[in-house]
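[audit] Reproducing an earlier prediction to check determinism. Same input, same settings, fresh worker. If the C-alpha cells differ from the archived copy the diff job will pick it up downstream; this log only records the rerun itself.
[audit] input (250 residues):
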Amino acid sequence: MVELNDFKPSLTPAVMAEFVGSFLLAFLAGAAAANAADNGLSAAALGVGLGVAMLTYTTVHISGGFLNPALTAGVLVLGGDKEVTIKDCISYIIAQFLGAILGSILVKSCLPVEALVHPFVTLGSLSDKHGEQVFIFEFMATLILGLVFMAVRDEKRSQAGNAGPLAIGFAYTIGMFATGPFTGGSMNPARTLGPALAFGNFHHIGVYMFATFLGGMAAAFLYKVALGDAEDGEPEEKRRADVQLAQKFV
C-alpha cells in the first residue's frame, strides 16, 4: 500500500550515484554536442552513447544506473519494483535534474567562446516550427530507449548480462543518429532542462519534456503489460528452453 511517506525524497548512496552520474553525463554530453558543430553528428552521438555506457557501468550496481528522469518515471508509474521503490524514484528524479543542471553550467563555463556560438541545447531543424514532428521523434526515440532499459533490467529474462550498459549506450547513440539533426536528440528531460537553464534558452522545452517523460512511461507500461512481466510470463521451464534455443544462434 502506498503511503504519504513514500513520496518524501531521501538522500542515500544510490541517490548520490544518480546525482554524480547525471552531473558527469551532462558535462560529457554538453562537450560532445559542442564538438559536433565542427566535427559532425558522430561526435555527439558516439560521445553521448559511450558516455552513457561508461556511467551506467559506474552506477548500475549502486542505483540501477537510470541517469534519466524519463526512465525513472517509467518505473515510478508502475509503482516501483523489487529494487527501486517509489521514494527512490522521486529522489532519483530530483537528483538527476540537479546533476544535469550543474553539469551543464560547468561545461558551459569551461568551453571557449567560439564553441558557444552553437549552444549545446537540444534543438534541431524541426524545433522552431514543427512541434508535432519533434514530439513524435522524441517520443519514439525515448520509447525505444526505455524498452531497451526495461529489457536490460529484466533479471529473469534478459540476455544482456554485463553488456547491458552497452546496449543502453547503443540505444542513445542510434537515437542521436536518427533524431539529432531534427530535434537535437534529447531522449532525456534532464539533458534538455540542464542546457536550457545554462543558456537561458527555453524555446519549446515543454514539447521535449512531455515527449520524453511520456516515452519513458509508455515504454515501461508496454514492456510490463504487452511484452509480459518476468513474474507473470511463461513457466520457467519454457523460458529456459527458449533461452537455450536462442543461444544456438549466437
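[audit] rerun output stored. Observation attached for the diff report: DSSP finds nine helices and no strands in the chain.
[audit] end
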